[in-house]
Amino acid sequence: MQRFLVLIVGVIFLAVGGFMFYSNYRLVKNCTVETVATVVDMKQEFNTDSDSTSTYTYYPIIEYKVSEDNLRATIDSGSSTPAYEIGESITILYNPKKVKEFIVKGDKSSSIFGIVFVSIGVLLSGYGVYVALKKD
After folding, report:
1. Which contacts (CB < 8 Å, 24+ apart) does range 119-122 have?
2. Domains in the chain: boundaries
3. pTM score, two decimals?
4. N or C of the chain: less Cβ packing under 10 Å?
């Protein structure tokens, strides 16, 4: 069983990366209506690492208008320093069938995470197959 552990972990990374790619693909495909949103607030999350280092992660809160409705939403990708300033205008693409589903135009962070997970999955799976097939 220990021989297959690396392979199993690699397959898990491949599955997670594949799911990330699929989710991102679905968002890009469905979010077709462009509009301008305004950053109205910043959500802060306090984090403590295993070595007791404390940091904040900042998530912009935006407002945008669809028809006559003003919508408010939080951008899912956070950063250690605010990526936007309050009052800044950004371009988003939203799903006309689910107007609360949106992506920030030009944001590639979801794709990058998918690439990282798939890459790690390929490496671990390849090594796992090598270890599993290796003759002692």
Report:
1. 119/17, 120/10, 120/13, 120/17, 121/10, 121/11, 121/12, 121/13, 121/14, 121/15, 121/16, 121/17, 122/10, 122/14
2. 1-30+110-136, 32-100
3. 0.76
4. C
Q: CA-CA distance, 74 to 41, in Å (whole number)?
A: 9
Q: What is d(CA 133, CA 136) in angstroms, rounded to the nearest whole number?
A: 9
**CA–CA distance, 131 with 136 (Å, rounded to integer):** 10
- 76, 59 contact by CB (below 8 A): yes
Classify residue 79 by its DSSP letter. B
One pLDDT digit (tens) per residue for the chain, 136 residues: 667 898 899 999 999 999 998 988 999 999 999 999 999 999 999 988 878 888 899 999 999 999 999 999 999 888 889 999 999 999 999 999 999 999 999 887 777 888 899 999 999 999 988 888 886 6
